[in-house]
Amino acid sequence: MRIDLISLFPDFVASLAGHGVVGRAGERGLIDIHGWNPRDYAEGNYRRVDDRPFGGGPGMVMLIEPLRAALQAARAADPAPAPVIYLSPQGRRLDQARVRALASAPRLILLCGRYEGVDERLLQAEVDEELSIGDYVLSGGELAAAVLIDAVARLQDGALNDAQSAEQDSFGVDGLLDCPHYTRPVEHALGAVPEVLLSGNHAQIARWRRMQALGRTWLRRPDLLEEAALSKQDRALLAEFLAMQATPGTNSGEPA
Ligand code: 9D3
Fold first, then answer.
1. Which residues are designated catalytic?
2. Cα–Cα distance between 33 and 151 in angstroms, integer?
3. Cis peptide leading into 89, omega within 30 of 0?
4. CATH assignment of the domain containing 115
């Protein structure tokens, strides 16, 4: 997958993408990130990339021409057609279903804004999709682009090691939260490891983990449960979890 990044700080995003799973995906040639700085396409001694908003008000607005020229250069660098994604607080909220769809594209162009935003005419003419990463205020689109790159890079075939891939099978697909995890020591002042995990009974362990995943999702993210397609067995496990919750002396490990 080729990713072209239009940003006043392309190196910032590329450096974030140079570590961990994304870094490895880059080394393996699974993703290839190219930065394009609108300032390099700006005219005049001052190389302006922004100007004051018509109608007044605080902040600056990114100029059409430097962005258009940077986009054009990015497009021309590869013949594959690429959707242009604008990272913006006005966009649709990114979720794992959208990440999955974008991860299968051969190419993406990511447009990052700074200041108050981008001249609306450039957006109308050039942008195919507008995405937000959540309801909080960032200073620009760069961190959002880094989030999107991380999320699509780890879905590329061969990006994860075997253990990570196995985990991905059970999580992220069914839309539930993860179950709790424990490692040594078995006994600690902070508590003991649930006995079932030490039993060696893999069917019982799988059942317990599924029940915990269902229960935590119900407690913490009921919105996700409405989307998830629960089997009859899942409903029974959830009922069992909730009954245990209601019984004093059965601490499931949930904070109050
Ligand atoms: C305080 C400035 N706001 C005036 C009401 C508007 C505003 C402009 C530019 C708010 C944030 C930004 C910069 N943010 C992004 O470019 C951005 C973003 C975000 O802020 N939150 C979540 N997702 C994203 S994607 C891009």
1. 89, 116, 154, 169
2. 14
3. no
4. 3.40.1280.10
For the segment 200-248, what is each residue's pLDDT rounded down to a tens digit?
999 999 999 999 999 999 999 999 999 899 999 999 999 999 999 998 6
Q: Give the tokens for residue 146.
A: 């880094």
Instruction: Looking at the structure, tell me whether residues 149 and 174 fall in a common domain.
Output: no
Same domain for 41 and 95, yes or no, is yes
* Number of domains the chain is built from: 2
Phi, psi of 185, deg, nearest 5: -85, 160
**Model confidence over 113-132: pLDDT tens digits?**
999 999 999 999 999 999 99
97 & 223 share domain: no
Question: Ligand 1 center to residue 139 CA distance, Å?
Answer: 6
Nearest CA to ligand 1 atom 5: 116
Distance CA 243, CA 108 (A): 48
The set of protein residues with a Cβ atom below 6 angstroms from ligand 1 is 87-89, 113, 116-117, 132-134, 136-141, 144
Asked whether residue 225 is domain-assigned, the answer is yes
Using the mean position of ligand 1's atoms as its centre, give its distance from the Cα of residue 59 in Å.
Answer: 12
Does the pTM surpass 0.70? The reply is yes
Determine the residue of 137, 143, 147 to mutate for testing ligand 1's pocket, defined as the one with the most ligand atoms within 8 A of the Cβ atom: 137
Judge whether 164 lies within some domain: no
Q: Examine the domain organization and report whether 122 and 233 are in the same domain.
A: no
- How far apart are alpha carbons 159 and 84 in whole angstroms? 24
Co-location of 64 and 130 in the same domain: yes
Q: Which of 124, 153, 182 is the last residue of a domain?
A: 153
Residues 28/154, Cβ–Cβ less than 8 Å:
no
Residue 91 CA: nearest ligand 1 atom is 25
80: containing domain: 2-153
Output the CA 166–ligand 1 centroid distance in Å: 36
pLDDT level of residue 102 (50, 70, 90 thresholds):
very high
